[in-house]
Amino acid sequence: MLLCAILLGSPSVSWGQESGRLDKIRATSAIALGFPDASPPFAFLDGAGKPVGYSLEICEHVAARIKSDLGLATLEIRHVPVMSATRIPLINNGTIDLECGTASNLIERHKLVSFAPTTFVAQIVLVARKDSRVDVDDLSSFRGKAISAQAGGETQRVVTRINARDKLDITVMAAKDTAETFLLLQTGRATGSVNDDALAHTIVANARDPASFVIGTKGLEFAPYGILEPKDDPSFKMAVDDAVVALMKDGTVARLYTKYFESPLPPRQINVNLPMSDALRRALANPTDSGDPAAYQ
What is the pTM of this model? Predict the structure, then answer.
């Protein structure tokens, strides 16, 4: 019976498992983009509640390219909120076709998903209140204290790994998203928070009193970001990767970087003022989906 269901294309069989995503998109005239709704400037909600952001807009350009390639008259873009802990399961079960946020391209994640060419290279940094008497460039100064980190993200894994290795007795407090990591710091429940540099600069810039906080300049680790793709779907990966590379080559990605990292952001019109790093310039000039941090040095 299962074999018959597969051969007949039964709707009980997941698109993500038994059929390519291009087939699904062609059949439904729709594509589902997963995004974290509180991770500016990568993906967030503007003042009108519309999903926007650097990574998300790159995905929307990719969707437009796929629509053209498939010769579709229309293509509905469905925006699906995700969290770090849910984005990979939702890719794998077919709920979303791409994840457009802050996923770090890690070699071990390649067992579960694929990545589009890297569109951001972050450094994982610490944030603390200026009056907390800790050194944000030295994790050991947080010995015996609490640090907030996004649950299921690479930042949580990095600080947990160093904490165990160096026996720092740090309590790593899991938060659902970037906003909550900072809330735990603001309210004093955590002495520090750990985040990628762009997210850290954005959340501090949007704080009521940005001058009260200090951001580390010495990163714990490099973290290349890429759009998440389903694993073992070579036709879809080629379509997405070709679109991303085309956006790099024609300057679209650079223009989106200026829009989201060097210009005022809604809803409060705060400017992150984070110039493009040399590591990202190299990645845009020489596109790669490598999960090896050495590829970005």
Answer: 0.80
